[in-house]
Write a structure and sequence with these properties.
alpha/beta; 2 domains; Rossmann fold; four-stranded mixed beta sheet; 23 helices; 17% strand
């Protein structure tokens, strides 16, 4: 007696279809599972055997073999329990085989037969749709997440008896144990398009809303933030404690453009895989702002672990990764950012396979200029040249080269603090200009695969950022005087391209280059070396 049931396994933030095959034949009584399984998947046979017994189904005294195919993909997680149980029941001829070919099922089973939710349901349902499967059977708590996929019939269940009743009759049986009339979850989303699924449901954000109009003074810093987001450049703020660096960083998401439906879906898949999606009402429609503590590990930042999961840089995909007190992070932790900052993704090679996670974020960092935080105010700072050097040696030159703008955040004066400038712009006003800049870049780079000025390859800078003879002479002097690297030179040109776009200029002029150079104060030795 043979049967086959469809389920799925996570491979990074994508899912692959898995066929759970069950065969019951004569031979020595044994329940065996094969197919490149992790320990928690191997334990499924004990959970399934006990759950079936407690539901009134004794396994036959025969040889039971369950294979999870394809065998070259490592299977991990507890979401295979439901598929294994149904495959065995089908092989026992308790549920009909004809009802299984158009159904994908995922869920964990308790010893009494309850179906519990798992992480990563959204990419699994998307996999089912791509494979032409029309029905997904999931735990009740995962039903809403699964129903966000249009064109998919989603059935949420609480107990194994409900699953058996549905498969035997083709109807959801609300009279089975642990079920009530209100528990029925059968959602058909044919009438719902992606916009309704993602953008129409607003996120319930109880967190305080930050707005640039709340910030007094710091005009240079606010200008740098607009430049950074207009071209999606990385930003470092250096200044004394209390200058408003963290406040400004938390305002940055308020000037980011709205997410497209494709961006919402990709970000939702990441949060689903990490188990951070279940309590939401819809797709992720707010750009993320992630601010990990400086004690975070390398795996926590870029991803990894025994069961490979995305890290903070992937949770910040499409939004902002804010590293406050940058020099307090372990140097080895910061160094792992170098490749993702360039490639906008992170690829982790493990014994179980290679996992690639998206990591297209804007890095915003903040730090004090010295250990005490008050350099170069010598009336308050008593750091020695040696301590200043040790402090700034915590950041490597290759990492600093990957930061486009470095701006000093000066202390706010009393008058600026107590008397708000009526000319303070709101985030909505700044956001309008940012949206216009993004639209301009989208039109400029149409069909090239480039999205923003910060992503222009070095080999195409001459095409998109040509310099006149006067501008060439200016940059030659800057390059030699400041001792720039090739990477920092290219970043100055890209930032100048963004500034020229904001100025409505087709060509990059010397004034645009001058402003871009001003945002490279990190190249100056006055604060870096304490001289």
């Amino acid at each position: 007696m043979y049967s086959i049931v469809h389920t799925a396994v996570l491979c990074g933030i994508e899912a692959r279809k898995v066929a759970v095959e069950a065969d019951i034949s004569n031979g020595m009584p044994v329940f065996e599972m094969v197919g490149f399984l992790s320990s928690e998947v191997k334990e499924a046979k004990d959970r399934v055997r006990t759950a079936l017994k407690n539901c009134g189904y004794e396994l036959p005294v025969k040889r039971i073999t369950v294979n999870l195919s394809p065998a070259n993909i490592r299977k991990s997680g507890s979401g295979f329990d439901l598929a294994v149980a149904v495959a065995v029941l089908s092989a026992m001829e308790i549920v009909p085989k004809t009802a299984l070919h158009q159904i994908m099922m995922v869920g964990e089973i308790s010893l009494e037969g309850r179906i519990t939710g798992i992480s990563g349901v959204l990419p699994m349902v998307l996999c089912a749709k791509a494979e032409g499967i029309g029905i997904c059977l999931v735990a009740k708590e995962n039903a809403h997440e699964a129903s966000l996929v249009p064109g998919m019939q989603v059935i949420g269940v609480r107990h194994l008896q409900e699953v058996i009743g549905f498969l035997q009759t083709g109807n959801y049986n609300a009279s089975q144990p642990d079920a009530a009339e209100s528990e029925r979850r059968c959602v058909t989303s044919d009438q719902r398009d992606w916009e309704e699924a993602g953008a129409s449901i607003q996120e319930k954000d109880t967190q305080k809303q930050y707005d640039f109009s709340q910030i007094n003074g710091q005009q240079l810093l606010k200008r740098a933030c607009e430049v950074a987001i207009s071209g999606m450049h990385n930003l470092l703020m250096v200044g004394p404690p209390g200058a408003g660096k963290t406040m400004i960083a938390r305002c940055i998401p308020s000037i980011l453009p709205e997410m497209s439906v494709e961006e919402q879906l990709e970000l939702s898949k990441i949060y689903s895989v990490c188990g951070l999606f279940q309590e939401r009402d819809g797709l992720m429609d707010q750009r993320p702002f992630r601010s990990p503590h400086h004690t975070i590990t390398e795996q926590g930042l870029i991803g990894g672990g025994a069961i490979v999961h995305p890290g903070e840089i992937s949770l910040a995909h499409g939004g902002v990764l804010f590293l406050d007190e940058l020099t307090e992070f372990k140097k080895s932790t910061l160094e792992v950012l170098r490749q993702p900052l360039e490639d906008k993704c992170v690829c982790l090679a493990r014994v179980s396979g290679t996992y690639c996670f998206p990591a297209d974020f804007v890095l915003v960092a903040a730090m004090n200029p010295c250990n005490c935080g008050y350099y170069p105010d010598l009336s308050r700072c008593h750091c020695t040249s040696q301590s200043l050097q040790r402090y700034h040696n915590k950041l490597s030159r290759p990492l600093l080269d990957r930061i486009d703008l470095c701006v000093e955040a000066a202390a706010v004066g009393y008058e600026e603090l107590r008397k708000p400038d009526p000319a303070n712009e709101t985030s909505a006003q700044i956001r309008q200009r940012v949206v216009a800049m993004h639209a301009l870049q989208k039109a400029r780079f149409a069909g090239t695969g480039i999205r923003f000025n910060s992503r222009i390859p070095a080999v195409r800078l001459e095409q998109y950022c040509p310099l006149g003879s006067k501008e060439e002479h200016f940059m030659k002097n800057i390059y030699e005087r400041m001792g720039l690297t090739a990477r920092t030179y290219h970043k100055i040109i890209r930032v100048a391209r963004t500034i020229a776009d904001m100025d409505g200029s087709r060509d990059i002029e010397c004034r645009h280059l001058q402003e871009a150079v001003c945002y490279r104060s990190i190249e100056q030795n006055d604060w870096e070396n304490g001289l």
